[in-house]
Structures are given as C-alpha cells and as structure tokens.
Amino acid sequence: MGIKTRSRWEIILDTLRGIAEEGGVAKKTRIMQKAYLDWRNFRKYFNFLLENGFIEEVESGGVSSQYRLTDKGKEIMKKLMEIERILR
Questions:
Q1: Residue 43 belongs to domain spanning
Q2: Is the separation of the CB atoms in 57 and 65 below 8 Å?
Q3: Which site from 1, 41, 75, 83 is most exposed, i.e. has the minimal number of CB atoms within 10 Å?
Q4: Where are the alpha helices (DSSP H) in the chain?
Q5: Rounded to the nearest 5°, which phi and psi values hold at 26?
C-alpha cells in the first residue's frame, strides 16, 4: 500500500487545524507536529499563512512566540473543511 501525498490545501488545512485544536493558540513546534510536517515544509506553509494574514503572532510574554488563527484564517479553514467534506 502506497503513501498518500497530501495536496497543498490539505496541508494548509492541517496546519490551521493544528492551531485550532490547541485551543486557538499554539507554538510553532506544536503546530508543526499537529500538521505532520518536517521543519523545511512547515516553514514554507507557516510563512505563507503568516504573510497572508491567516495566522498572527500573539503576545505571550514567554520565551517562544505563540500563534493564533485570524478571522480570515478561521474563514479559510471553514471553507477548506467544506471542500474536504465534498471531496471525501
């Protein structure tokens, strides 16, 4: 049985879900783990989401930054989940 390759939108959805499942705020390492990505691929998708306003950094006062979904991020996640539901 072969390994199924995820599409770009599935990886983006998994990344957004990773934040949502952590209570809406998560650190990069946790998001990367939840999205099942290696560091190189994670950076590419994470930076895309950050630069396009789907996620934002949260003032945490801690050593490492935390990130949350923006309203735009919640909306795209909802739309991607709908696409996923239709295609499966």
A1: 8-87
A2: yes
A3: 1
A4: 8-21, 28-34, 39-51, 71-87
A5: -150, 155
User: With the C-alpha atoms ordered 43, 46, 47, 48, is the resulting torsion angle positive or negative?
Assistant: positive
The CATH number given to whatever domain includes residue 69 is: 1.10.10.10
Looking at residue 55, the DSSP 8-state letter turns out to be E
The two tokens of residue 74 are 């919640």
Number of domains in the chain: 1
Cα 51 → chain centroid: 13
Q: What pLDDT does residue 4 have?
A: 72
Closest CA to 65 of 37, 28, 40, 39: 28
User: Which pLDDT band holds residue 84 (cuts at 50, 70, 90)?
Assistant: very high
